[in-house]
Specification:
- The complex is a heterodimer of chains A (219) and B (349).
- With 219 residues, chain A is mainly alpha-helical.
- Chain A is 76% helix and 0% strand.
- Chain A has helices at residues 14-18, 21-47, 61-90, 99-121, 126-135, 137-154, 158-164, 166-173, 176-190, 196-218.
- In chain A, helix 3 packs across helix 9, helix 4 packs across helix 6 and helix 5 (126-135) packs across helix 6.
- Chain A starts with 13 loop residues before the first helix and ends with a helix.
- In chain B, strand 2 and strand 3 (148-151) form a beta hairpin.
- Chain B is an alpha+beta fold.
- In chain B, 41% of the residues are buried.
- Chain B has one domain: Sulfite Oxidase, Chain A, domain 2.
- Classes of the chains: A mainly alpha (219), B alpha+beta (349).
- At the A-B interface, helix 2, helix 3, helix 5 and helix 6 of A face helix 3 of B.
Chain lengths: 219, 349
């Protein structure tokens, strides 16, 4: 009997591996888990007594970690949004099953980003967190982006897609667009002075959303 | 010499990367042509790691560790935590102490905001090697009777050097404790004999993209400029630093001379100063020009006035995971609050 892995519909057979199905389905999980594994390894060294800077976490590992997790949340979200236009441009239909894991990784990195900020920046005090959200638009934007993708993460199973119905599910999942826009502004506000990196992400997002708009209009 | 050891003495531990002056220092940024001020010799009684271990074993272990470090899986150098300054020493008398743990020399010199060398915290340590700090002159002019151009060698000897341990609070809500070497700014300004109508002091950093690659980016308008009210500049806490941790300033910390105003956010401490000008008008300051709603002229450390994007009520001391409360005027209120009597500090942030 071929062993079944969760989320893996085909059997664990040699043809499946040679056809690249296994690699395609699990490769994306592996790639997205790598940054987290690297971060975890560096923290393990620091907690084991190594110097944070020499463990590649800079002399201020907390700030580095919050930025790192936020950036990977953003990257995963952008990749999620890139699947559909990329599939349409290239005809690579095998990209389609990557959309859900990428979206879930965006949510996972976003939640970790929030948790580290909450625990180490706001001292784990919920009232301090709420004050920070209320007083600073920069924080409010990031928090809203994460809250917007929360229902998407919760309704990502086959069962819930069926229960909601394709149309309703799709409408709900359009929340990814405002979430990405808010996250992009959050990143622009993060840096001091004029720096190109957040604007590069904003530009990419504009392109990804623009492609969708163009397709819709030209249909 | 049997001086009692200070509580937070920063004498380098023996046996770890002790460069004898004249040898090339390990860090690129430290490659300065400086005359040796004091010769430091490795203690011959203390065997190095290489001497104590069988050579083949030592070399083999070395290559394995290097391989892992290159793969980003291990700390990059075994000894760096204990690494102290390798730059020429400065003879200074400690005049101000602080009962708080010093931030390590490694952190002070590898976690910097010095956008002339890049916006990343570790960029300055990487990129500041091209800065030539000798020859260097400081120009003092504007509303003064005796405009001056002072060479850096003379500048270091103008007044007795003091070592002062100050807190440094960055506007980004992190902080350090640093033993600066320098002297108060006041006597230096008085050398130029300011006119009675001089009310402000304007400072300017070197402007040379060939030496400061970050100046090719438009992250800020160059050169970096800062300013103080004259009474702030004359306050005895305000100092011109030419060194830290008993040695001359590393490039990434603002060599060869920088401003240190301990009750203000770190960005007021302009680095690599080439010009000081006395003026009757409030001079423009770089971060205020860049984002006037976020950074004011005064920039006094104030836990009650938030940055528009984050709270200033607490800060993370480099080397600690949890935050601590930020003190008004960074803990120097007893000495400086009087400067701002009658001034609305929420509006004049």
């Amino acid at each position: 009997m071929a062993p079944k892995w969760p989320g893996f519909t085909g059997g664990w057979t040699l043809p499946a591996i040679t056809e690249g199905k296994v690699l395609r389905r699990w490769g994306i999980q592996l790639v997205m888990a790598l940054p987290l594994a690297l971060l975890g390894w560096r923290w393990a060294m620091v907690l084991g007594g190594a110097d944070p800077r020499l463990s590649n976490l800079t002399a201020e590992p907390v700030d580095y970690t919050i930025n790192f997790l936020g950036l990977w949340a953003l990257r995963s979200l952008w990749l999620t949004l890139a699947i559909t236009p990329l599939r349409q441009l290239t005809g690579w239909s095998w990209l389609a099953p990557w959309r859900r894991p990428l979206g879930l990784w965006a949510f996972a990195y976003g939640v970790l980003h929030l948790l580290v900020y909450f625990e180490l920046d706001q001292g784990g005090e919920i009232d301090l967190l709420l004050i920070d959200v209320a007083k600073h638009n920069f924080i409010l934007l990031g928090m809203s982006a994460l809250l917007l993708i929360l229902p998407l993460a919760l309704t990502s199973t086959h069962k819930l897609i069926k229960r909601l119905g394709g149309k309703r599910w799709q409408n709900l999942h359009r929340l990814i667009y405002p979430a990405a826009i808010l996250a992009s502004i959050h990143f622009v506000l993060r840096v001091k002075g004029f720096q190109w990196e957040p604007w590069l992400y904003a530009g990419l997002l504009a392109a990804l959303l623009g492609l969708r708009g163009y397709r819709k209009l030209s249909r | 010499m049997n001086r009692p050891r200070a509580k937070n003495s920063h004498r380098r531990p023996l046996g770890c990367n002790q460069n004898v002056l004249g040898n090339e220092p390990a860090d690129d940024a430290h490659r300065q042509k400086e005359p040796p001020v004091l010769i430091r010799i490795t203690d011959p009684a203390h065997a190095t790691e290489a001497e104590a271990t069988d050579e083949a074993l030592y070399l083999n272990r070395r290559s394995v560790l290097t391989g892992m470090a290159l793969a980003g899986l291990l700390p990059t150098a075994a000894c760096a935590q204990e690494k102290g300054p390798t730059l020429p020493r400065l003879a200074a008398r400690r005049t101000r102490n602080l009962n708080e743990t010093l931030t390590s020399y490694d952190s002070v010199t590898h976690y910097n905001n010095f956008y002339e060398f890049g916006t990343g915290k570790e960029d300055p340590a990487r990129n500041a090697g091209r800065l030539r700090t000798r020859p260097w002159t400081l120009r003092i002019d504007g509303l003064v009777n005796k405009p001056q151009t002072i060479d850096i060698d003379r500048l270091r000897r103008l007044f007795p050097l003091e070592e002062r341990v100050y807190r440094m609070r960055c506007v980004e809500a992190w902080s350090m404790v640093i033993p600066w070497v320098g002297y108060p700014l006041g006597p230096l300004l008085k050398l130029a004999d300011p006119l009675g109508k001089a009310k402000y002091v304007a400072f300017e950093t070197l402007n040379d993209p060939a030496q400061m690659p970050g100046q090719r980016s438009r992250v800020l308008k160059w050169p970096y400029v800062e300013g103080l009210r004259l009474d702030e500049a004359l306050h005895p806490l305000t100092m011109i630093a030419v060194g830290l941790y008993g040695s001359i300033l590393p490039n990434q910390n603002g060599a060869p001379l920088r401003l240190v105003v301990p009750w203000k956010y770190g960005f007021k401490g302009i680095k690599s100063i080439t010009r000081i000008r006395l003026t009757d008008r409030m001079p423009p300051t770089s971060w205020n020009r860049s984002a006037p709603g976020e950074y004011g002229f005064y920039a006094n450390v104030n836990p009650a006035v938030d940055h528009p994007r984050w709270s200033q009520a607490s800060e993370r001391r480099i080397g600690e995971f949890r935050k601590r409360k930020t003190l008004p005027f960074n803990g120097y209120g007893a000495e400086v609050a009087g400067l701002y009597r009658g001034l609305d500090l929420a509006r004049n942030y």
